[in-house]
Amino acid sequence: MTATTRTIASGSGWHVADVICTAGAGDRPFEEAHQDFCIAAVTGGAFRYRAQQGTAMLAPGSLLLGNSGTCYECGHEHGSGDRCLSFHFRPAYMERIVAGVPGARGLTFEAPRLPPLPALAPLLAEAEAAREMADTDAFEELSLRIAAAAVATVSGATPVRRAPSRRDQKRVAEAVRRIELDADGQVSLSALADETATSPYHFLRTFRQVAGMTPYQFLLKTRLHRAAVRLRLSNEAISAIAFDAGFNDLSTFNRRFRRVMGETPGNYRARRPSR
């Protein structure tokens, strides 16, 4: 076996894997099958991808597009190894994503890949950073955003922007309250969408339009705000504050806090006014 696959995050109808392949020019390609719809972001190396839609060269920044139930073959005639962030979607889940993309023409990918496109670069960089930071909670939203971006790009769909309805605003307000109540626990985008009777991607798009940020970004903001308040008001251990706020890893909390607040939690606490 020349590839190792590690599942990073998963949910109902989707999962994300970090795939590292060490195959080289001397390794004979063999046929495999896509069990689900697959959108794989190439983050290193290059390889040839042959599928039902055609043959293409995949390089860093490009997206491999695979249709559920179809066979494919990868070859490394011109170099050794590659690494991909591979997003997988069950057909029913993918169908709901496609239905939420205005102007999308169908469920099946007609092209084998998307080349490195400037419009997709920030999103793919965000996904790769989440992998390197082990930010597994970010991947539910990232998988939806990447799938929708791929579908829209392949379909040539033009984004349709409309003002959010009062019903949309009510749904988002209810979701905001739910996030605030449960910020220290597990808050799933799919669960929030189910409570508003919308598809996950439609809910994500509407929330971002109304609130100005994604549900996960709002969740992080809420957690970091509460942690910052406790750092100023108490002498509790920083690790205890981080875990109580909903962060499962102290190093992740420290990185997030420093990125948002501009300094480490310890330095932030040290600058509090004496009481």
Question: Mind explaining what this structure looks like?
Answer:
This protein is α+β, with helices and mostly antiparallel strands. The chain has two domains: 3-155, Jelly Rolls, CATH 2.60.120; 162-275, Homeodomain-like (Arc Repressor Mutant, subunit A, Orthogonal Bundle), CATH 1.10.10. Helices cover 43% and strands 21% of the residues. The chain contains ten helices and ten strands. The chain has helices at residues 91-99, 121-132, 139-155, 166-181, 189-195, 200-211, 215-233, 238-245, 250-261, 265-270, and strands at 3-11, 14-21, 31-33, 37-45, 47-51, 54-58, 63-66, 71-75, 82-89, 113-114. It has a six-stranded antiparallel sheet with strand order 1-2-9-4-7-10. It has a four-stranded antiparallel sheet with strand order 3-8-5-6, with no helix packed on it. α2 (121-132) runs antiparallel to α3 (139-155), α4 (166-181) packs parallel to α7 and α5 crosses α6. The chain is globular. The relative contact order is 0.11.
Task: Calculate Rg over CA atoms.
Answer: 21 Å
Kindly name the structural category. Answer: alpha+beta
Report the average pLDDT across residues.
90
Helix content: 40-55%
Largest sheet: 6 strands, antiparallel
* Secondary structure tally, helices: 10
CATH superfamily of the largest domain, called what? Regulatory protein AraC
State the name of the first-level CATH class of the largest domain: Mainly Beta
